[in-house]
Structure formats: C-alpha cells, structure tokens
Amino acid sequence: MGAQNPQELPLIDFTHDDASQAFFDSLQSFGFATLINHPLDMGRVDRIYASWRDYFTEGVGEEFVMDPSRQDGYFAIERAESAKGQVLRDHKEYFQFYDWGRCPEHLKRDLSDHFNDCVGFASTMLRWVAANLPTDIAESLSIPLEDMIRESAQSMLRVLHYPPVPEGSELPRAAAHEDINLLTILPASDGPGLELQLQSGEWIEVVNRPSQVVVNIGDMLQEATGGYLRSTTHRVAATDPAVLKKGRMSLPLFLHPRPEVVLSERYTADDYLQQRLRELGVI
Fold first, then answer.
1. What are the structural domains of the chain?
2. pTM of the entire structure?
3. What is the pLDDT of residues 91-111, one digit of tens each?
4. DSSP per residue, 183-209
C-alpha cells in the first residue's frame, strides 16, 4: 500500500480496507502518515491559498491583529513564534482561526467549512489510532482519544504564509520543532519544503503531492500514550535557492483536547499548552 522505501513515507489510500492499520504503522515508524483519496476538499484548499495570499499581500486590518489572551487573529512576521530552543523567529506570517474566533467575513465561509471537515476527519484518525493501540496503552488513557476533542474549543486552523527568504539570509521558514497538540492535519501545501527527522537523525523530505493530506503526531498524544506514539521533529526548509525565492502557503489544523482533559499524571491539556506557549514566546 504505497511506497516501501524506508526513506519515504508510504502512500496510504484512505478508502482501502487496511487503511487504518497502514496509517497506524506509518505513525509508529515515522510519526507521520500520508493519505490520498481522503474526504477533504482540495479544491477549497486551493481557493483558501489563493484568497489568503492576496489578503496578506494587501495588508491585514488592525481589527484582526493577534489577541494575546485569545491567541486568535493575525501574527505578523515580527510576532511569529520561535521554535523551542531557537533564538531566531521563523520567517512566516499567519492567521489563527478558531470556530469561535475572528475572521474577515469574505474569507470566513471556506475557512469555517474546511475547519469543520478537518475536525471530522481528525476524529476518524483518532478512532484509527485507538483501534490499533495495545490494550494496556488504551486502558491507561484517562478517556478515549475521540472523547478528548468532543466539543473542544481549542482546536485551531492556521493559515500560514512563508514569504520569500532574502538571498543570503539564515532566517528559518520553520525551524526544527515538534507540534504541541494531539494530531496535526496538513493538506498539501502549494510548494515543497516539509522535512521530518528519522530516529537515526537523518532528515528526509515529505514529498508534496497536490492530492494528499499529511497527518502527524503531536506532543500531547505522545504524553497521553506514555511515549508509545512519538512526536517527530520536523521543519520547513529548502536547499534550492529557487524555492526560497517563492512564497509558500500551508494550512495545518492543530487538533487539541478540551483544557480539563487529563493527558497524564503530570499534565492536563491546559497545563501542557500554557507551558509550551511560554516556551514558544507567544505568551
């Protein structure tokens, strides 16, 4: 089911009978999985990329500037996060959208529809994970994985724009990092650059195919499973100067539990989130 090259993510057909097992196996091996024939509307994703690229170019109004307490709205390049342990800020701008949050009215419908579809798709992915966990790991969870996100107001869609990187600059598009949340749902970007780090320390490209969606483990899922499922370090890089001269759009959905959900003896979801936001320098 897809490529068997150990240096490349297998390509998993969402509609195949063995998709759940193949998805789980890929998460175990790479922390990432790539799916095709999935239910997300990629035509709508393309529209979102085109319309938000124009919106960022025109300039974002003051009424949508990031709210430090709510964490919704527009993060300009000078307000972008720094990866944990990194000094330089990532070279990116982005708009954080929650289903309760602010959004320019003319851009809201596609974004809201995509958000809802992603959360539904992510619920299926959590069921697939739960169905393949060893019994002792599944029984150690405070509540079933799918129930952790039920009626959660914390899941967030990020409209990301990576501007062209100035020639000779060392600015990272997105420095090596791990995601905070349970799962990240990432439809194909409009350009290459995503790389993940194997357990050997080697970096490999996540091939960018127009029809695919990439799913990866976040640190909260790692915490909830006691490290059985591991969050994988990844980055947005490019060795080709021609790629860095072009802007790049991306649309990750970060799936979060409700704040009170107990991840482990050490953390609730809110405890963990607040700690990581402080480390990223955004609160």
1. 11-258 (2.60.120.330)
2. 0.91
3. 889 999 999 999 999 999 999
4. EEEEE--SS--EEEE-TTS-EEE----
